[in-house]
Amino acid sequence: MNEIKRFIEKLKNIPGSADVFNQYRDNIPGLDIPQGASIRSKNLELYLNAMKDSPILLLGEAAGYKGARFSGVPMFSERQIVEKEIPELSHLPLKRTSTRTRPFSEPTATIVRKALREYSVKVIIWNLFPLHPHKPHDYLSNRPLRKQERILGLEFLLEFLKIIKPEFIIACGKIAENALREAGIDAFPVRHPANGGKRRFLEGLEEAMKIYLKKNAKMRSHKHHN
Fold it and tell me: Can you say whether the dihedral through the CA atoms of 26, 28, 31, 33 is positive or negative?
């Protein structure tokens, strides 16, 4: 079993609760198609394999009900699966898993993925807490993370970093920024695009990319001179 498969198996072992849903392990009749969890696990595996050589990681907060909850892929919605909106993912046989007629569409996923298409660098996206935190028994809702969820998320993030090994990390939002800082991991902070943060997110992303490209050019020229 390769390291990505092993990583996903560990994710599947996290038990859900009244206000945390493990989308890689469980299905809710009426909301999920019967094979939903295994399709989401496969979607994630396809995504991680396609993007594992990305030099940049963009870290978000948690799976949202309009995004990774049904797609299995961070900051990625069912609509983006159906419309094959992301060029580098359009060849992957990703499938949607909700029972809804219309696929879920997430504003954050739309903003972030569209913004990343402006750059020629591959960027992998992960969430600090990879599961879906929701209001008790309200499966189509989101809620802020608790401290213990941030701690658990960090354990998985450290494992994720061993597999992906990004050269540069962008922390999207305060939760991601604080978690990385507490772990002593260098990251460039940008505003989360939700709740009116789109403009500041785009400005922050542009600045982060400039810094990365400059740093990368320096490293390349240093290697060239050596």
Answer: positive
Question: Could you give the angle at the alpha carbon of 92 between the alpha carbons of 115 and 132, nearest 5°?
Answer: 65
Q: Helices in the chain by DSSP H: which ranges? A: 3-12, 36-51, 68-71, 78-82, 107-116, 147-164, 174-182, 198-225
pTM above 0.85, yes or no: yes
Q: Which domains does the chain have, with CATH numbers?
A: 3-225 (3.40.470.10)
Question: Of 204, 27, 216, 26, whose CA–CA distance to 116 is shortest?
Answer: 204
Give per-residue pLDDT as tens, 83-123.
999 988 999 999 999 999 999 999 999 999 999 999 999 99
What DSSP line would sit under 93-125, residue for residue? -----B--SSPP--HHHHHHHHHHTTSSS-EEE
